[in-house]
Write a structure and sequence with these properties.
The chain has nine helices and no strands. With 258 residues, it is an all-alpha fold. It has one domain (58-257): MFS general substrate transporter like domains (Growth Hormone, Chain: A, Up-down Bundle).
């Protein structure tokens, strides 16, 4: 919709419509906030859980590998490739604003379709860690294909392939983090573990965006896209190595079931 509006009515219209939608969303959220929080039992966690550093869970090798090998590269694929490089590269290749909008739409459409399907598949059938690995590798391979192909169709394949990979990995990575919060990292509490995952993921994506933006000005958009693809694959390999060092997927599955 944004691409079509920009193409037909100008870019200022996109900002006005987006602002109106955000105001509407804020109003709806405000109306849904209850007058007071319901008094529900809370999980008993250590007294100092709220003051646990976001770095504390990184003492666990598998959690650190999940953050730096899966979560941060996935966020970089979204923030740096989809929201930045793909748009600029498609514009350089001569795509209109509407074409760019339709291409990028595929990323989020694939996440919306693949995410729920992945949740059903991993429900007792496939190890979430294995699914997260497969999604990360698919994202990286898709970006490499788009960088080598170097056409609008190639970027379309890269964006949609990355969307499928993200849909496969997004839910399972949270599932793996929760399982670790309930087993190896139970002394820190689930809130601290998930908070650490999300905070480090966001911080890593910001650093990645700045680095890739600086890099792309020197090596060009295709090479910068290839760098992100290699980064995603290397992160998946590092995460797989951490699992194998910890006893393999069978041990991970037993830990989750316990």
């Amino acid at each position: 919709m944004g691409g079509v509006l920009a193409d037909r009515l100008g870019q200022d219209t996109v900002f006005l419509v987006s602002a109106a939608l955000m105001l509407l969303a804020g109003l709806l959220v405000y109306r849904l906030i209850p007058g007071r929080r319901a008094q529900t039992p809370v999980e008993q966690t250590p007294a100092d859980t709220s003051s646990v550093s976001i770095w504390a869970p990184l003492g666990n090798l598998r959690f650190a590998a999940l953050v730096f090998g899966i979560a941060i590269p996935a966020s970089i694929v979204l923030q740096t490739f989809v929201a930045y490089l793909a748009t600029l590269y498609l514009s350089e290749l001569g795509a209109s604003a509407a074409d760019i909008g339709r291409t990028l739409m595929g990323f989020f459409l694939m996440i919306a379709l693949v995410g729920p399907a992945t949740a059903r598949v991993t429900d007792g059938r496939v190890d979430p860690a294995m699914m997260a690995l497969a999604g990360a590798v698919l994202s990286g391979v898709s970006l490499l294909a788009g960088a080598v192909w170097g056409t609008q169709l190639g970027i379309l394949v890269a964006v949609w392939g990355a969307g499928i990979g993200q849909g496969m990995a997004r839910g399972p990575q949270v599932s793996v983090a929760i399982s670790m919060a309930e087993s190896d990292l139970r002394h820190l509490g689930s809130n601290s573990v998930l908070g650490s995952l999300r905070t480090l993921e966001r911080g890593g994506s910001i650093i990645g965006l700045v680095l890739v933006a600086l890099l792309s000005s020197h090596i060009g958009y295709p090479a910068a896209i290839a760098v992100i693809g290699v980064w995603a694959i290397a992160g998946a390999v590092a995460y797989a190595a951490s699992i194998m060092l910890g006893g393999g997927f069978e041990r991970v599955r037993r830990g989750e079931q316990s």
